């Protein structure tokens, strides 16, 4: 089933795609590299995909942990329709088990009571139009695990002229990856660390599939994407690791993919690690710039220098920001520097938006809402 679900389908599990039967009778989910092998009634590690009879189903189709209109800079995307509002939502569960999770109330949820809003794909698209959101973001938790719902919502959004954004760890298998990103206009991909040990020990995952997703996005799609790394003191913030990751980005993705280095706050299972010092973020940004990344940012801290977009050609500030708010704009409507006419990489469409730093929760009324 690839058509949009109707209200009736909310009461049943939605048929999942990307799985196959193993010789021993188990069903293997092929959405993400965990490749969960499921017997009748079992759920995958993400908790939201489960075996039901002779198939694997998605149990969160049409249910959300909430909707909110955010600045697009909060995703973070600094080069995609700057200043515009984005209708953001997520579901429950996650396919990684990051000990430093900053969204654990949603991602670790095993209860549908976090899923307070019920929404068809069409309702989401209509809510985006009603709130003047230029885009809808699949965020808070990873759209990889609710792929069928995200894809249907993306189709409904595109039918209304609303763009789509995936905020993801990029931990996804090849076929599912192609389908998900075929329906996305932009993405922010977490590059959580740059060692296999980091991914294994702190996320119970692997680094290579994430690098494969980044390479795929760059070379086989038109999706605009930016990269975020949450810097955790003593875990992924060494000079050597930052040198390696930023060099890899420039060599494999080119100089135009923006990198965001954001501050960790003690949370979930890592409450014994201190918050990231602002100097660490500044150092990471410096290393990235020195290695040829044209657009490097600090995040989760007040740092106007680290928030600014600098023209790679003449060094002029082309977009100034204070946290999520635009404070300066020196680009033409199609994203060229007003000083030297060099093109700034990204998606620009006329003057910047004026949404500012506001965050507005939205309730999608529904007869099926909890
Ligand atoms: S999407 Fe969920 S069920 Fe499927 S392999 Fe990944 S963790 Fe397992």
Question: What is the fold's blueprint, element by element?
Answer:
Blueprint: E1 14-15, E2 19-21, E3 27-29, E4 37-38, E5 49-52, E6 55-58, E7 63-64, E8 66-71, E9 85-90, H1 104-107, E10 117-118, H2 121-130, E11 135-138, H3 147-159, E12 163-168, H4 174-182, E13 186-190, H5 196-203, H6 208-220, E14 224-231, H7 239-253, E15 259-263, H8 278-290, E16 296-299, H9 304-307, E17 309-310, E18 317-322, E19 325-329, E20 360-362
Parallel strand pairs: 9-11, 11-12, 12-13, 13-14, 14-15, 15-16
Antiparallel strand pairs: 1-6, 2-3, 3-4, 5-6, 7-10, 8-9, 8-20, 17-18, 18-19
Helix pairs in contact: 2-3
The protein binds iron/sulfur cluster.
Please describe what this structure looks like.
With 370 residues, this protein is α/β, with parallel strands linked by helices. It has helices at residues 104-107, 121-130, 147-159, 174-182, 196-203, 208-220, 239-253, 278-290, 304-307, and strands at 14-15, 19-21, 27-29, 37-38, 49-52, 55-58, 63-64, 66-71, 85-90, 117-118, 135-138, 163-168, 186-190, 224-231, 259-263, 296-299, 309-310, 317-322, 325-329, 360-362. It contains 9 helices and 20 strands. It has a 9-stranded mixed β-sheet. A 3-stranded antiparallel β-sheet has the order 1-6-5, with no helix packed on it. It has a 3-stranded antiparallel β-sheet with strand order 2-3-4, with no helix packed on it. Strand 3 (27-29) and strand 4 (37-38) form a beta hairpin. Mean pLDDT is 91; it is low at 1-11 and 366-370. Bound molecules: iron/sulfur cluster. Iron/sulfur cluster binds next to loops. The site of iron/sulfur cluster (SF4) has 12 residues, from loops.
């Amino acid at each position: 089933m690839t058509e949009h679900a109707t209200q009736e389908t909310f009461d049943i599990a939605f048929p999942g795609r990307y799985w196959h039967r193993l010789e021993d009778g188990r069903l293997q989910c092929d959405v993400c590299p965990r490749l969960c092998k499921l017997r009748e009634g079992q759920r995958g590690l993400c908790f939201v995909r489960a075996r039901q009879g002779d198939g694997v189903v998605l149990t969160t189709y049409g249910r959300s942990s909430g909707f909110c209109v955010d600045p697009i800079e909060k995703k973070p995307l600094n080069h995609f329709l700057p200043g515009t509002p984005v209708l953001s939502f997520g579901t429950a569960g996650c396919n990684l088990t990051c000990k430093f999770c900053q969204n654990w109330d949603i991602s670790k949820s095993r209860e549908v009571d976090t899923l307070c809003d019920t929404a068809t794909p069409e309702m989401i698209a209509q809510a985006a139009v009603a709130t003047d959101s230029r885009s809808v973001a699949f965020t808070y938790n990873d759209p990889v695990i609710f792929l069928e719902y995200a894809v249907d919502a993306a189709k409904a959004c595109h039918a209304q002229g609303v763009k789509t954004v995936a905020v993801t760890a990029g931990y996804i298998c090849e076929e599912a990856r192609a389908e998900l990103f075929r329906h996305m206009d932009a993405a922010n991909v977490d590059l959580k660390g740059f060692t296999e040990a980091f991914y294994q020990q702190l996320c119970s995952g692997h680094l290579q599939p994430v690098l494969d997703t980044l390479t795929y996005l760059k070379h086989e799609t038109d999706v605009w994407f930016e990269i975020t790394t949450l810097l955790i003191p003593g875990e992924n913030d060494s000079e050597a690791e930052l040198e390696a990751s930023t060099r890899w980005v420039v060599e494999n993705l080119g100089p135009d993919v923006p990198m965001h280095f954001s501050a960790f706050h003690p949370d979930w299972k890592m409450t014994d690690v201190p918050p990231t010092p602002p100097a660490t973020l500044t150092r990471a940004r410096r290393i990235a710039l020195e290695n040829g990344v044209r657009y490097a940012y600090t995040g989760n801290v007040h740092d106007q220098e680290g928030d600014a977009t600098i023209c790679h050609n003449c060094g002029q500030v082309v977009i100034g920001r204070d946290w999520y708010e635009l404070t300066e704009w020196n680009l033409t409507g199609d994203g060229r520097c007003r000083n030297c006419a060099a093109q700034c990489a990204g998606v620009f469409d006329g003057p910047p938006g004026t949404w500012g730093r506001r965050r507005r929760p939205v309730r999608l009324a529904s007869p099926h809402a909890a």
